[in-house]
Amino acid sequence: MLEELLEGAGAVADNVLAAPSLLPVQDRLHSWVLEDPGLGTLSRRGAIKLFLPKKNRPFLPGGYEWGALRALVPEIRREYLQNWVNEFSDPNYAAWRPLSRNLGSGGGSDSGCVAPETAAARIAAFLLDEGISSTWVANWLSYQQKYESQLLTLAELIERLRDHYANSRTFAELLVVVKSRIALPRPAPDPWLNKPQAEQWLNRHGVSLDGLRVEAGLRLLRAHWDIYAFLAEARDVVNRMAARHSLAFDRHLEVHQEVWIKGVERKKLYLPEGRVSRVVKSIATRDRLFELELESQDLDNAVQILSAADLGSKPTAITSLWATLEALFVRSGDRGYNVVAAKRAAFIATAALIRFELLLAMIEHRKHGQDALAGQLRNVPADVGPGILFEEALRNGNPPTAKRPLQIMASERLTGWLNAPARLLAIRAEVEDSLKRLYRQRNLVLHGGVYQSPGLEPTLRSASVIVSAVVDQIARISTRPRPSALEFAASVEMRLHEYVSGRGYAVNLVR
Length: 511
What we know:
Helix content is 58%, strand content 4%. The protein is globular. It is mainly alpha-helical and 511 residues long. It has a four-stranded antiparallel β-sheet with strand order 2-3-1-4. Helix 13 (337-368) crosses helix 16 (405-419).
C-alpha cells in the first residue's frame, strides 16, 4: 500500500490522478500502519506514521516524507514476516482463539493480540502481493495441518513461511505446446520454438508425443516461488500472444491446456482458469449463453466486455473490469460516475457476500450436522426456505454445533453480522474502496501509460472477484420482467438499508 501511495503521488503531480482519489489510500494507511505488527514494534509503527501525508500539506515526489517512505519499502518487505514471528512469540497468543467479531476492524482481543482472521488476512495479502500463489499458500497450510508430526507454535509456523519466502525463489523452464498452425519467422524468436525444436524439448524431458499435436512451442524462463504462480503467468503470456496472433492472422492461436515444467515430476499440470470465468456461473448454468440475445442488453454488453478480462493482459483486464461497471451502472446525467459505479456495484456485492456465506454454511450444516437444527434443515423443503430457518437460528442465539475451526469461525462471523447488521454497511464501504482502487488503476493504465504498477496485481485479485460476482448476481435475477442493472442495484440498496434497520432476511437481499 505504501508503494501505491508513492506511485499515486507521482501520478497526481503529473495530472494523471486527481488528488482526492488518493484520500482513501491515505486514510487506510494511517490506521494500517499502527495496527499491523508486520511493520515492527508499536514505537516503530508510530515513527513510520509521522511520514504519512497530512491534510492540507503537499506530498510530492522527491520530497522529504516521500523519500523517507520510499527508502522504507525494501526494509519492510525484507522484515515483514520476521516481525510477525516476533509478534506471535508473545505468550498471550498461546491462548488465541477465533475472534471473528474483530474482523475488518483491525483490532484484537482484550489480551492485546491481533484478531486471528485479521492476522491471517494481512500475512496472506503480503505473500500474494509478493507473487506467491493462493493455491500454494492453501496447500502448504493444509500439509502442515495434516502431516506435521509435532505441534507447532504460531511463531514456528510463520518461521517456516519466512524461510520459504527468503530461500525458495528459483528459475524454472516451462513449455506451452501450440496445436494450431502458426507462421513463425525463421529463425523463431525467443520465446518461441518451431515444431522440431518443440518436439526435441518434449523428447529431451521424457514427454511422449503419442496423440500430442505439436506445431510450435512457447518456452518460458522465469523466477518464481511456486509452480502455481508460474502457471498463472504462463496463462497471461499465452493470452497476450494469442491476441497478437488473432490480430495479425485473423485466426485463433490454439494451445494444449496441459503444460510441462522442466524438473517437475507431476502427472498433469494445466494452465489455470481465467480471472473471471470461474466466478460467472449463473449464465452458463441457466443455459442463457446459448440464447441469441440475452434478455438484458446492458448485461449482454457487460458480459462481452468482461470476457476481455480473461483473454487479455493485466492492464487489459483492469480496463475491462472497470468498463464492465460503467456499462452496467452509469448513465447520461450521472455526476462523479467513478463514484456512483463503485457505489452501486458495492451494494450488490455486499448483499451477495452475506447471502453466499449464509447459504454455504446452511448447506454444509444440513449435510454434515448432527444436532437438532441439522435435522430440521433436512426436513424443510427447499421452497419453504431452509436459509431463513438457519438465519433465524443464528439470530436467536442457537448457532449450529460445529467442530472444524473454519465452521466455528464462519458461524461466529455470521452471528456477528446478523446481530449487528450495521456492520454490513462498513463491509460495503470496503468493497466500494476496492472498486475505487480499480478506477485509480484504470486511470494509471489509460491516462498515465503505467503498466507495471505495484497495485496492479492486488487490484486484479480483489476486483476481478467483485465485478464477476456482481455480473453473476445480475444474471441470476429471477424477477420477471427482468429489471435493468440500475433498477436491480437500487432495489438491493433499499433492501440492505431495510435489513440494517431490522427488517427482512439476509438471504433475501438479492433475489
